[in-house]
Input
Amino acid sequence: MKLSNFVKLALPSAVLALGLISTPASATNTTTTTTMPVTANVLASCSISASTLAFGTIPNNPTGPINANTNVTYSCTTGTTVTGITFASNVSGPAFTMKGTGTDTLVYNLSLDVGYSSFLSSGTLYAPTPSLVFTSNGSSQSLPVYGQIAQNAAQAASVDNYTDSVTVTFTY
Output
């Protein structure tokens, strides 16, 4: 082997062995960590709406009570505890009363029972019972409401258009 070939081959190895040529150092990554808090607060809430309770046209000299029904639709966040519901008439007092265009009034009753075994009083808070259960699962629910005009009230009513506006309140 010629000396020039020897130098070409051996010299780089010798220089490397002596540390005269350095190889690039591998890059070192430094890390640090932390925790990121994540929170959410789900509040108890309900939304409610009610359809019209329409008794329709009252016949001349009715032979029994005039019945009608509607629904109160509600949706409460899952886990919301509904403690009661209140129905309040526009007219003060415990009775539900529709007003005519003049001074005429027409008393009616509301019930949460299809058999009308008990009537609600305007402005009274009704708490949940085994027969009145409020479901709070985030889905839309329907609460049937039944209205009744007693036969004697219907017979005594003067010709007029009667209206009332009942405020429905959920307490939770």
